[in-house]
Design brief:
By secondary structure, this protein is α/β, with parallel strands linked by helices. About 25% of the residues lie in helices and about 15% in strands. The chain has 4 helices and 5 strands; from the N terminus they run H-E-E-H-E-H-E-H-E. It has a 5-stranded mixed β-sheet with strand order 2-1-3-4-5. Helix 3 (about 110-120) packs parallel to helix 4. The radius of gyration is 17 Å and the shape is globular.
């Protein structure tokens, strides 16, 4: 009998890899964010990425970040990866209570509300580049108050990719 492989992916590497791959589906030219929601027994429940709602053509709405008129920027139209993953879930009972969320960018305050409301208990994030913004400070306050644990994903330095 031979020994099993020892260099297999950890659960964190696997699920963050799925979140990163999901983010690659985003058509946003500036920011591609991906999300993967996982059950307590490590089964993928849902995935999402940032983009426009169903039926809203990504050719008809703006992808611009800046502008005097908010209606000419992407922010009032786009849906974040976390909310997309929550809304995409269609499992039995439609409950995410006790689930974990892997996300490539720390969630904003609006996504934190949805994370808390649906019962997700743990958040693993890769990047927190907006940590000093009001949206992320408020997000962390709410997550702390609601008892949602969050931690930074610890990169292993392993190159995980697909070659097609």
């Amino acid at each position: 009998m031979s020994d099993k492989r020892r260099d297999y992916l950890s659960w964190d590497e696997y699920f963050m890899g799925v979140a990163m791959l999901s983010g690659m589906r985003s058509k946003d030219p500036g920011t591609q964010v991906g999300c993967c929601i996982v059950s307590q027994d490590n089964k993928i429940l849902s995935m999402g990425y940032n983009g426009f709602p169903l039926g809203c053509s990504d050719d008809a709405f703006p992808w611009t970040r800046d502008g005097e008129d908010p209606l000419e920027t992407k922010y009032v139209y786009s849906t974040h990866s976390e909310l997309n993953a929550i809304l995409n879930y269609s499992g039995p009972g439609r409950e995410l209570v006790g689930a974990k969320m892997y996300v490539t960018l720390f969630p904003c305050n609006e996504c934190a509300k949805a994370i808390i409301q649906c019962g997700i208990r743990e958040l693993i994030y890769d990047c927190d580049k907006y940590a000093d913004t009001a949206a992320v400070i408020a997000s962390k306050r709410m997550l702390d108050a609601a008892g949602v644990e969050y931690r930074k994903y610890e990169r292993t330095g392993r190159n995980i990719g697909i070659g097609l």
